[in-house]
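Changelog note: in this version the structure field was regenerated for every chain. One regenerated record is shown below for reference.
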Amino acid sequence: MDIEDKHVVITGGTDGLGLSLVKLFLAKSAIVHVISKDPEKLKALEKELNNKLLHVYTADVSDFNQVVKACSEIWKVDVVINNAGIWLEGLLDEYKYEDISKVIDVNLKGPIYVTKALLPKLKSSPDAHIINISSTSGLKGVAKQSVYVSSKMGLKGFTETLKDDLVGSNIKVSGFYPGGMNTRLFEKFGTIKDNQKWMNIDKVAKIILFMVEQDNTMVMGDVVVTKRVK
């Protein structure tokens, strides 16, 4: 896909990997639509980037009413990158019930809501692509990540089924499974990790761009990226 002038929707695009994706796609002259629940961060993003190709929408992806409203304002869609996600670590008996619900709502229901809301517009694109950002934690169980793993494995199941449902259509579907990245994800949700030597988010973003840029004769259905162990 030639990404110039294509409409790309990115959830959770105000920091971390999402922000790297926003900057990268804008640099390639894509029209970028960012969905985030934090209006102040969206305002700061607009001010920082000052780019007429950037459009922002306030919505919590875990609230389907907000998702439907925001997505109704996006007039055209070629690419959807379901990137928004939250972290939860610890033993199950330590979790609060509301935290469990929030992780499932954001990490699993969020991509489902956004995809459903944008599917009619994706079907109108001659060459469309959905990329769900999961995690290597969505591929196998990990100690002290029972709920997070469940949300990401659920996302993998959604992605795999969506591929089958859209076979033969104009829409490609990919699952992206990164290992640990150097972001503030863990810190934001109360976990301190020494992740300075983990994967660089700008380099990871370039891999996702590469996936999108493949022509419609090919699809990178599942991409797993981890830090090389030396």
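Spot check on this record: Residues 7-224 form a domain with the Rossmann fold fold (CATH 3.40.50.720). The chain has one domain: 7-224.
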